[in-house]
């Protein structure tokens, strides 16, 4: 078998600048034509050689970047148009800062970036630096400033207003549809339809903010992780469900003796997610409920709460504060499970930072909601579709909550101590290195 030989970038650069032809380079480094082209493209995008130095003497034409180089060049150009600072670009795409002017010149020469876009970026950065007070301490979140990222457009109060707008829009549209179709707003069908509408409105708000920030969804979602990582994260759904049940009893059991009406509203304000199937219409209601709870909600809520809200607040304050604040908002929107939802938000935020992929918390969210849907379905099959659906019967199962608390609270403490967020963590969508 032929021995593999490592190629020195300095040696290749010296040979190219010395006038060595492509044929001589392929013979010397044992490269094919495509292999040599890949090496040239890599040196070009990293700014180690200029386009003029890579001019092909035999044909008089410049070497065109391969597909992976084109993708990287497009990402760098998109980051430049979005207003990323020089340091953010060089850190994210892993090349020396002194090569940045050469990289920009190459992008402009290959028409990935127009001269007008480059001048506009420079003007924005100069204006931002001029407005920055002298002696301002750096944010605890590594070396990223909100004003130098696409999230300068996406403000925290705008995200909160989007949540409120989605809730109001859902209520109005659901009311109109119930009048037109003659459906009771408290029926399981109206509840399932309202969940779908709420997620759709939230998704539209988030998509519009991405459009304003000129931020690609693929950057926010990150890479596709291996199945082993998704499987291990989905297993966390089991202790999280136990913690959710225990947390509900810890919070609401004492309050049920003080303010029973409020507790009854918090726990049972929604119709059951699954109903006994006696006809096709009821089967369609259950199918719509599954579609909304298990498939739509995890994707939309992780995109909005972890991808947008968590990222924005982590940049504004720091990562621990961003995780706590975004998890608190997430919990308040789930009044029947405030403690459990807060810790679920915490776990999914940590997973997003640790794996740099939004697919991991989405898979955990799907597994969690899917298990709840299955457990509710078991109640239906056992002939108890409305079991524990009133405060008196719910209180009679207090011992289940206490037993689960003894089991899962030590696990929650262990998980928190082991995975406590650090201030030096960088937000995932601004910390991925270029694959060159």
Walk me through the structure.
This protein has two domains: 136 residues, no CATH class; 209 residues, no CATH class. About 5% of the residues have low confidence. The chain is mostly helical and 436 residues long. It contains 19 helices and no strands. The longest helix is centred in the C-terminal third of the chain and has 37 residues. The radius of gyration is 27 Å and the shape is elongated.
Q: How many structural domains are formed by the residues?
A: 2
Give the overall shape. Answer: elongated
Kindly report the average pLDDT value: 79
Helix segment count? 19
Summing up helix and strand content along with how strands pair, one would put the structural category as: mainly alpha
Distance between the termini: 27 Å
Topology, number of strands: 0
Could you tell me the radius of gyration in angstroms? 27 Å
The helix/strand order is: HHHHHHHHHHHHHHHHHHH
Roughly what percent helix?
Answer: 55-70%
Major sheet: none
- What amount of the residues lies in strands? under 5%
Low-pLDDT segments: 56-65, 133-144
